[in-house]
């Protein structure tokens, strides 16, 4: 549509002209229920009060809607056909003070953008929720859709009587009956907030209530009503007590450290279906994907992950909601801080005290991958338009930015960092900021040159490698230990790093422990660690011990030999996680054969105490097998890995999270007749493994593996749905059906995702996941050429969220040969004028493929 992709220049010009005083939004959602047209719409009436610095000027408001019934500007009726083009409403001859009223018919969403409508197959109930970031509020009401035009919002919703209806503000009074089966809810006007964090949740949700109170320094008491919501069908699985426990711990932590009381009144948390994201920080009404309501047994890592997301979104109440970036260039001002503060608060305030291990092992892996793609960018990015903004919710903005902040805390000091945050909130409350605003307060509190630090860490791209180089005397003592810093030629910046260097040796009994440690400021290509001169020869030198900085750790030859022989004897779990991460980076970079990494997993993963690290190792091992192992060795490697997984499954502590992790991993690898027979026996009860509870979620995992290997047919999948006739069960069914090894099945899945537009976002993602099976390369080969033929049309015709899922999910990564690489290069060459965001997705996938081919060559050379 013309004008749908708002540019930064347009937003700046509109911000120069306008100041928004208030939004009044009235939604009528009665059309969400009952029979009716296939493409349902709802009525949206918006009143916007705003000022213009240049009376007589022209601008536009944003609205994505099938139809506009009426537009009135300053009492003057405008013809919708003249002023509305499908995405923008032209506004001419503005006054100094203006009132815009738009009456529109907006569309319910099936892609998780705007106002999403979900009908529960279990009981037929309808559930609604909104998701707007970065710019989908305009699918629900008329707006000036950019983060720096903040305003108070007053919301009114008419919906079926008996529903739960929530907005950002507290409910004002009781719902007012408007018909025998409908009522109108009114909500308190919010404080000034950006359009993308306004929210509505409506439907027959299951609701649990609680309360938080805190005495403030001035003697007053802060009262925060708490709510937790999920679909009725999930109520029996909903552990709201644990959610409230983490919520209260987080509120205590942030009040203790931010010295700015939570400003948005109530704090509801809604777990909603078919959600595209992990969660969204709407003030007073945070939304989460309902997969955080666990339907079966999960490992402690899943609970830790949920706690981290709860606290991440809570940190946004200050970083992002109270103080908001001016434009998406500075998205990091909220996401990097929330990602860092989520782990920081979790470790210090909850039972998940090992959160930094997960951060080092999992979050940083995401950052390292993103920072080595051709699309890498500085933490402070150059975002020209909304499509680019959509793609910048990536590993750089989140995980690298959080890692950089962890480095900043080491560089500037914890107290200076937190005091800077406190001044930042008070100075810019309910306003918008840029990078310079934050640097200003941090310079005040730390006394450090933040501009120089920002130039190195925030305004350049790429990841440095740090390698130890030691020399020894005849008595086996260190004469000199240096750290060598390298950077990729494309991003040559050598940064200042505050790092810890640990020396490790094996003690009696074989334990590998640290016996010396020092911190040093690394700068330039070579830094001498003078403090460790004279230390006894170590068996392992670990640069970036304790994970203070953001870098790729390399090893000297002796250290690498130690890890190959004794990795499982490394006692400290964080040090062990850092070594695993470094070994994985060596594998990704083609410096270690994939089979060597898989051998290390086979030998040492069973002894890994941290279940989160174990699950990450299992994910890396599967990637190494599927993408990085030499094709001629894959079958043998898969057999060895499956045998090892089954061995560990049988010896794992009964009922433990480790046992569950090994069971799921074994299912992913199972391919031999005996493996598939065991999965079938675990499903029908004829086989048992002591302590392993095969609950409904694990049943689907076993069935999905069986279906992909041709050992479970459509009837078996249908029978499983009869056991679990729920929304979750339907997603599993769709995935299992698409995973079957049949040319007819693959064509049906392709048609459902690419040709038809009837699937919801969740079912499309399930179909894509089932379609793309590593053991079915031959069946998938014909779709490589078809992929490149359709993606431009998909991008043009579908919503960006759906198009991103298709372009990423259907890229022919499993056709890992030079022909596919050539096809990707040809498409990029022939589509130089394609949308930049689409080209970025293809370029990233192409780079992953090229990396896989390089790793396969390295692995083949090891034969």
Identify the notable features of this structure and list them briefly.
863 residues; alpha+beta
Percent range for helical residues? 40-55%
Poorly predicted ranges? none
Strand order of the largest sheet: 5-4-7-2-1-10-13-12
Report the end-to-end length measured between terminal Cα atoms. Answer: 54 Å
Proportion of beta-strand residues? 15-25%
Rg over CA atoms: 28 Å
The largest β sheet comes out as: 8 strands, mixed
Count of DSSP strands? 28
What's the average pLDDT?
96
The tally of helices reads 28
Give the overall shape, derived from the CA principal axes.
globular
| Global structural class | alpha+beta
Task: Describe this protein's structure.
- With 863 residues, the chain is α+β, with helices and mostly antiparallel strands.
- It has 28 helices and 28 strands.
- An eight-stranded mixed β-sheet has the order 5-4-7-2-1-10-13-12. Strands 15-16-17-19-18 form a five-stranded mixed β-sheet, covered by helices on one side.
- Helix 3 packs across helix 4 and helix 17 runs parallel beside helix 19.
- The longest helix is centred in the last third of the chain and has 26 residues.
- The radius of gyration is 28 Å and the shape is globular.
- It starts with 7 loop residues before the first helix and ends with a helix.
- The mean pLDDT is 96.
């Amino acid at each position: 549509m013309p004008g749908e992709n708002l540019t930064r220049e347009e937003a700046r010009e509109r911000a120069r002209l306008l100041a928004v005083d208030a939004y009044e939004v009235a939604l009528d959602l009665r059309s969400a229920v009952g029979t009716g047209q296939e493409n349902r719409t709802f009525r949206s009436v918006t009143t916007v009060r705003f000022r213009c610095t240049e009376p007589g000027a022209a601008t536009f408001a944003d609205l994505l809607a099938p139809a506009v019934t009426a537009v009135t500007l300053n009492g003057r009726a405008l013809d919708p056909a003249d002023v509305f083009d499908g995405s923008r409403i032209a506004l001419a001859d503005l006054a100094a003070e203006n009132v815009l009223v738009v009456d529109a018919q907006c569309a319910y969403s099936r892609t998780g953008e705007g106002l999403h409508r979900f009908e529960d197959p279990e009981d037929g109930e309808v559930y609604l929720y909104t998701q707007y970031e970065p710019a989908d509020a305009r699918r629900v009401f008329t707006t000036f859709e950019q983060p720096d035009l903040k305003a108070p919002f007053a919301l009114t919703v008419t919906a079926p009587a008996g529903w739960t209806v929530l907005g950002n503000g507290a409910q004002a009074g009781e719902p007012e009956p408007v018909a025998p089966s409908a009522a109108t809810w009114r909500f308190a006007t919010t404080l000034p907030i950006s359009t993308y964090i306004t929210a509505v949740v409506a439907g027959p949700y299951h609701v649990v209530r609680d309360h938080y109170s805190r005495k403030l320094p001035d003697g007053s008491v802060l009262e925060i009503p708490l709510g937790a919501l999920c679909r009725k069908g999930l109520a029996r699985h909903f552990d709201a007590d644990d959610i409230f426990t983490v919520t209260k711990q987080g509120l205590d932590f942030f009040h203790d450290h931010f010295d700015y009381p939570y400003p948005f009144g109530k704090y509801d948390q809604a777990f909603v279906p078919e959600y595209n994201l992990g969660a969204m920080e709407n003030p007073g009404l945070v939304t989460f994907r309902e997969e955080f309501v666990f339907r079966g047994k999960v490992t402690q890592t899943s609970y830790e992950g949920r706690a981290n997301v709860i606290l991440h979104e809570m940190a946004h109440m200050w970083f992002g909601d109270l103080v908001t970036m001016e434009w998406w260039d500075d998205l990091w001002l909220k996401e990097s801080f929330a990602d860092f503060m989520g782990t920081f608060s979790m470790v210090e305030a909850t039972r998940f005290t090992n959160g930094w291990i997960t951060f080092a092992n999992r979050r940083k892996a995401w950052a390292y991958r993103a920072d080595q793609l051709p699309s890498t960018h500085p933490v402070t990015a150059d975002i020209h338009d909304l499509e680019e903004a959509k793609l910048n919710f990536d590993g750089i903005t989140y995980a690298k930015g959080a890692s950089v902040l962890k480095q900043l805390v080491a560089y500037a000091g914890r107290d200076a960092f937190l005091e800077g945050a406190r001044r930042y909130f008070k100075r810019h409350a309910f306003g918008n900021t840029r990078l310079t605003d934050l640097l200003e307060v941090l310079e005040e509190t730390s006394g450090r040159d933040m501009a120089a630090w920002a130039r190195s860490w925030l305004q350049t791209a790429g990841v440095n490698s740090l390698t130890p180089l030691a020399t020894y005397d005849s008595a086996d003592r260190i004469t000199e230990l240096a750290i060598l810093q390298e950077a990729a030629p494309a991003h040559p910046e050598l940064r200042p790093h505050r790092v810890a260097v640990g020396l490790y040796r094996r003690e009696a009994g074989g334990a590998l422990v640290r016996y010396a440690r020092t911190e040093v400021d690394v700068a330039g290509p070579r830094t001498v660690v003078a403090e460790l001169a004279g230390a006894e020869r170590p068996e392992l030198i670990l640069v970036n011990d304790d994970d203070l900085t953001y870098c790729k750790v390399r090893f000297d030859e002796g250290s690498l030999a130690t890890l190959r022989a004794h990795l499982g004897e490394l006692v400290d779990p964080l040090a062990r996680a850092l070594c695993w991460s470094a070994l994985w980076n060596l594998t990704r970079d083609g410096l270690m054969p994939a089979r060597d990494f898989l051998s290390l997993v086979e030998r040492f993963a069973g002894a890994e105490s941290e279940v989160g690290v174990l699950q990450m190792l299992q994910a890396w091992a599967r990637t190494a097998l599927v993408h990085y192992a030499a094709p001629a060795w894959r079958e043998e490697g898969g057999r060895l890995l499956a045998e090892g997984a089954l061995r560990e499954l049988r010896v794992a502590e009964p009922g433990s999270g480790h046992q569950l992790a090994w069971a799921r991993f074994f299912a992913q690898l199972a391919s031999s007749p005996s493996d598939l027979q065991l999965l079938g026996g675990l499903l029908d009860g004829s086989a048992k493994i002591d302590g392993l509870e095969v609950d409904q979620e694990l049943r689907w995992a076993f069935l999905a593996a069986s279906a992909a290997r041709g050992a479970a047919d459509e009837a078996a999948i249908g029978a499983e749905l009869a056991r679990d006739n729920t929304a979750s069960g339907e997603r599993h069914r769709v995935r299992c059906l698409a995973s079957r090894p049949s040319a007819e099945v693959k064509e049906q899945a392709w048609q459902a995702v690419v040709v038809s537009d009837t699937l919801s976002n969740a079912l499309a993602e399930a179909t894509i996941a089932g379609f793309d099976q590593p053991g079915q390369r031959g069946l998938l080969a014909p779709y490589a050429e078809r992929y490149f033929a359709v993606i431009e049309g998909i991008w043009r015709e579908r919503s960006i969220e759906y198009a991103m899922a298709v372009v990423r999910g259907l890229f022919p990564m499993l056709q890992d040969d030079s022909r596919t690489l050539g096809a990707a290069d040809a498409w990029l060459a022939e589509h130089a004028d394609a949308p930049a965001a689409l080209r970025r997705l293809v370029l990233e996938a192409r780079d992953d493929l090229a990396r896989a081919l390089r790793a396969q060559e390295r692995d083949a050379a090891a034969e």
